[in-house]
Design goal:
It is a single chain. By secondary structure, the protein is mainly alpha-helical. It has helices at 5-33, 45-67, 92-120, 125-151, 156-181, 199-209, 212-230, 236-260, 262-265, 283-304, 307-328, 335-343, 345-355, 360-383, 385-391, 396-400, 402-421, 431-454, 457-484. Helix 7 runs antiparallel to helix 8, helix 8 (236-260) packs parallel to helix 11 and helix 10 packs antiparallel against helix 11 (307-328). The longest helix is centred in the first third of the chain and has 29 residues, at 5-33.
């Protein structure tokens, strides 16, 4: 039996109150364990966050009531509703408009929380980060809510909408408790003394956190899979939002990776100038930034593409963070081999976005990138062996030696090229692709063979940079073959 709207609303309200209680209990226990037993209001942030949390709570309740009554479909346009902007009664239109006004109130309240956090808690990166994160997610919520009316998005967007609202609610509850427990000047000791920095330099650090070079390569494979799957350009809306969601997911995983690896990044010469080890950004802010980007990715892909694409993309993100970064990277020389599965996910997501499902060509693309990853990264590890050894990362050269690494690079290169040619017998590509992929793969094997024989860092560096070109060109060849059918 379907519950009445008031019962659903009450149920959600109790669930959110229970969640808030758990957050408060966990944070109070944490603060006491850290020796911060007093819960005196330190600044004006706690009252501001409490007001915003109250607005979000009312927004959650009004959203539940609106979604389970005729009010859900009462307004076919946004921001007006049948020419009205302000509720004047209790009709479905008025209920829907009330929800919109509560959303506007919440945006204003969260904006004020960010201002207060910056003025009173600038030296506490955790509180500033949580405040900004809640505000950013709220802006995304309003945009998705409006888009749901404009474009009639799939029904799963309601689930994602509620999930993100719950995260905002939880973050604000956390801000209230932490502001009452963390002392003033709780400065992150890893952050260098504050210097006057322009917004451009700060923005540059946050862009760097997303590893844009890696992101471009991932998006290229996504785009290629979409064009190959659709045999042409898919609908521009799907193309745009798939790439946006993929970029957010890749950037979020990269930011979290830099938070987790901040200790070894400070040791290795090629990473020690990244924002965290260089002392330009507090580690916790990159952690929050990464989570926010990941959440936005799920919201965007669920709302504008499909839940399947969101799930596939999220699986790659979580695999990279939890399986590769937190587990494999520091525990086994097979870290790159197994961890390569994370970077192999984007073309599968792209194919699913363009076709609505997963087929053999998408699986072949997955395996091509999976087999490409070891020779690509092991070539890097050969001419950066000192960095990985100093950081204690068990990359193949540091554990098995250079000779075994060069041998494995050659073996993986041969298997990778064979896998790249399987597109033809499986009917996913034709003669044009076969010729181009064969030539590119032959040169890859040649460079790997040179490295196997020469034992020089020069050849390792050459193979590493060529491997990047190879992957992009192979996917380009696949796209051209599908488009012109030669």
């Amino acid at each position: 039996v379907e519950l009445e709207a008031w019962a659903v609303t009450l149920h959600l309200g109790m669930a959110q109150a229970f969640l808030a209680s758990l957050i408060v209990l966990a944070l109070v226990l944490y603060l006491r364990a850290a020796g911060l037993n007093r819960l005196d209001v330190s600044t004006r942030l706690a009252p501001a966050a409490a007001l915003a949390a109250g607005a979000i709570y009312l927004l959650l309740l009004s959203g539940a009531y609106t979604a389970t009554t005729a009010a859900a479909w009462a307004c076919p346009e946004w921001p007006a509703c049948h020419g009205n902007y302000v509720p004047t009664g209790v009709s479905p239109v008025d209920i829907h408009l009330l929800h919109r006004w509560l959303a506007l109130l919440s945006v204003g309240a969260l904006g004020w929380v960010v201002v207060v956090a910056w003025r009173t808690r600038r030296d506490t990166p955790l509180l500033v980060g949580l405040s900004v994160a809640a505000a950013a997610l709220m802006v995304a919520q309003v945009f998705v809510g409006a888009a749901n009316i404009w474009f009639e998005l799939n029904s799963w967007v309601r689930v994602a909408h509620l999930g993100v609202a719950t995260l905002i609610w939880g973050a604000l509850v956390g801000v209230v408790v932490l502001d009452r427990g963390l002392p003033l000047a709780a400065v992150d000791t890893s952050l260098a003394p504050e210097t006057r920095r322009s917004p451009r330099t700060v923005a540059a650090d946050y862009v760097e956190a997303t590893k844009p070079g890696v992101m471009v390569l991932l998006l290229l494979t996504t785009l290629a899979a979409m064009v190959a799957g659709a045999v042409g350009l898919p609908p521009l809306r799907i193309l745009f939002w798939t790439l946006v969601g993929g970029a957010l997911s890749a950037g979020g995983a990269a930011a979290i990776n830099q938070y987790v690896d901040r200790d070894i990044d400070a040791i290795m010469t090629r990473t020690r100038n990244r924002p965290i080890p260089a002392g330009r950004v507090a580690p916790v802010q990159f952690a929050i930034y990464g989570v926010v980007l990941t959440v936005l990715s799920i919201l965007v892909l669920t709302a504008f593409v499909s839940p399947l694409v969101a799930l596939i993309t999220l699986s790659g993100n979580l695999f990279y963070v939890f399986v590769y970064t937190l587990w494999l990277k520091r525990s086994t020389p097979q870290n790159i081999v197994i961890g390569g599965a994370a970077g192999s996910v984007p073309p599968v997501a792209g194919w699913a976005a363009a076709t609505g499902g997963i087929a053999a060509p998408a699986i072949l693309m997955f395996w091509l990138i999976f087999l490409w990853t070891p020779p690509h990264f092991w070539a890097l590890a050969l001419f950066k062996r000192g960095d990985y050894a100093a950081a204690g990362v068990p990359m193949m050269p540091a554990v098995r030696g250079d000779a075994e690494t060069r041998k494995q690079i050659l073996l993986y290169s041969v298997v990778m090229v064979i896998a790249s040619l399987l597109f033809v017998p499986f009917g996913a590509a034709g003669p044009l692709y076969f010729v181009v992929a064969g030539a590119l793969g032959g040169w890859f094997i040649y460079r790997a063979a040179l490295l196997y024989r020469s034992h020089t860092d020069h050849d390792a560096r050459k193979l590493f940079f060529y491997s990047i070109q190879y992957l992009g060109l192979v996917f380009l060849a696949l796209v051209l073959d599908r488009l012109i059918g030669f």
